[in-house]
Amino acid sequence: MQPLTDLSRLSLNQATTQNWSVLEAVDGCVRAGIPSIGLWRHKVAEAGLTESARIVRSTGLQVSSVCRGGFFPAATPAEREARIDDNRRAIEEAAELGASVLVLVCGPAPDQDIGAAREMVRDGIAAVAPYAQERGVKLAIEPLHPMFAADRSVIVTLRQALDIAEQFDQQQVGVAIDVYHVWWDPEVYRQIKRAEGRILGFHTNDWVVPPPDFLLGRGMIGDGVIEIRRLRCAVDAAGYHGPIEVEIFNQALWDTPGDEVLALMCQRYIAHV
Amino acid sequence: MQPLTDLSRLSLNQATTQNWSVLEAVDGCVRAGIPSIGLWRHKVAEAGLTESARIVRSTGLQVSSVCRGGFFPAATPAEREARIDDNRRAIEEAAELGASVLVLVCGPAPDQDIGAAREMVRDGIAAVAPYAQERGVKLAIEPLHPMFAADRSVIVTLRQALDIAEQFDQQQVGVAIDVYHVWWDPEVYRQIKRAEGRILGFHTNDWVVPPPDFLLGRGMIGDGVIEIRRLRCAVDAAGYHGPIEVEIFNQALWDTPGDEVLALMCQRYIAHV
User: Fold this and answer.
1) How distant, in Å, are the alpha carbons of A10, A193, A239 from that of A3?
2) CB–CB of A145 and B145 under 8 A?
3) Residue B214 has pLDDT above 90, yes or no
4) Cα–Cα dist A181/A153, whole Å
5) Given the DSSP bridges, would you call strands A206-207 and A218-219 parallel, antiparallel or unpaired?
6) I need a surface site. Which of A107, A232, A237, B38 has the fewest CB within 10 A?
């Protein structure tokens, strides 16, 4: 398993530096020599869409993805339609920001019927996929860890994400693979191989033991038990050579000065990814 | 989906009343009209094995299972052998207590190599299965929720548990299905069907939203999002007609008087299981 020798594929997912604005995060990447950034919509909204696009373009930074669309299941047809409208706006924003990928966190069920919610996800993606293609944006279904099945995503395995993605044109729908969400899966290497041609993103962080928190307990690369390099090599072998985002929801990291976080992240990336 | 009409299949898993001794739990079951109990080894050790067996026999209560064997992976051959010895003791205890099932929580990896740990689980089960059969005890592999993959069990799906169980005689090794651990799985109904003839236990509780805690956040039946009755009917349709344990790790419940917990549990069992 060959290590990476430079930062050319590294991308800062903005969730890692939650206290930074778009401008601060972009400047931080430039200072640290990080060539890409994954932007979050609430941060883009704070800075303004046009201004965010201008900031990014002015530095030549690549936008590896926009987070996030999705959250398709809802109790009523009107609510589901509102979610679909929001996904159309997310696609427009991604296009405006120059991102070729919109990450989909598919959403929880509105009730106990997880099977019906999974159908709503498929239907929601079908409703927006052609529009995404028109705007030059691909949709990346991100399976989330099963511990988020009740409150964030009824899509919980790579197999399941691919079962949906494969119902669409390869130019429209693929998957985003986050090591935190998939590392436990006995099928993960088989499914990564199957994902060839559909991988639109690869996200890294770590699973620390014991996990300090459900939502904000992700660890810095190298602090946990995930075989990150093995997963990265598997993703490479499946033909993905795009950006590798570092996405870490962790309160202690958020409380650390951003430049320190980025420096540590670059070092750990070379050592462990 | 037909509800259950009486308590004849209900079993109190002792984890639900963590502050009760074996004697207190057995007496509590008798008072509440609960015909079975799932015993934990640390509680049995506190009371003494012979005394625990005497207490249970004196009331005619059925012992639905003993928790738990497993924890097979370890860093060295000597440590792995010690784990296997401990499983032999667990089998002896189950036999002495009149339990026909020993639940296996298979254990985490000692390092980052989750694949190797999974091999150690298989090898560990192979080392003890013949002994279990000699003593009239079946081994129930319990897949745990993937959020426990790093600290409790590298066996995380019913598919994976069955892949192992099917390498052994049906009289020796099967699976225990806990709704908390499997409810999120897109394959769960397919795998329950596949499990026909191998289901050795069915455990109930609920997944509350948002989850209050990693380990002690299980909810009382009916307080969460799990389709418990649908899962119970699927397990019935797969030929399981044995005890249905209620196993809830929850600090608030532990702080509630045991008789109140059992009364609520009986009511929710009829309403939701």
Assistant:
1) 13, 20, 17
2) no
3) no
4) 11
5) antiparallel
6) A237
| Contact: A156, B186; criterion CB under 8 Å | yes
SS3 A28: helix
Distance from CA of B33 to the nearest CA of A (A): 30
Domains and CATH numbers, chain B: 10-272 (3.20.20.150)
**Closest residue of B to A159, CA-based?**
B186
Terminal Cα distance for chain A, rounded: 10
pLDDT at A213: 84
End-to-end C-alpha distance for chain B, whole angstroms: 10
Give Cα A239 to chain centroid, integer Å.
Answer: 18
CB B34 within 8 A of CB B263: no
Of A209, A211, A219, the C-alpha closest to A250 is: A219
Q: Which one-letter DSSP state was computed for residue A217?
A: B
CB burial readout B44-77, b (16+ within 10 A) else e: beebeeeebbebbeeeebbbbbbbbbbbbbbeee
CA distance A49 to chain B (A): 32
B138 HSE (CA, 13 A, CB side):
22
Sign, Cα dihedral of A96, A97, A98, A100:
negative
- Write out pLDDT tens, residues A167-218: 999 999 999 999 999 999 999 999 999 999 999 999 999 999 988 888 888 9
Residue carrying structure tokens 């897949």:
B143
Name the minimum distance, in Å, from the CA of B210 to any CA of chain A.
Answer: 7
Enter the tokens of residue A160. 């399941």
> Residue A105: is it exposed, middle or buried by C-beta count within 10 angstroms (0-12/13-18/19+)?
buried
Taking the model in full, what pTM does it have?
Answer: 0.97
Look at residue B259 and give its three-state secondary structure. helix
**C-alpha dist (Å) from residue B23 to A202, B20, B47:** 54, 8, 8
| Among the listed residues A121, A60, A132, the one whose alpha carbon sits nearest the alpha carbon of residue A95 | A132
CB of A225 closer than 8 Å to CB of B150: yes
Other C-beta atoms closer than 10 Å to the C-beta of A54 total 11
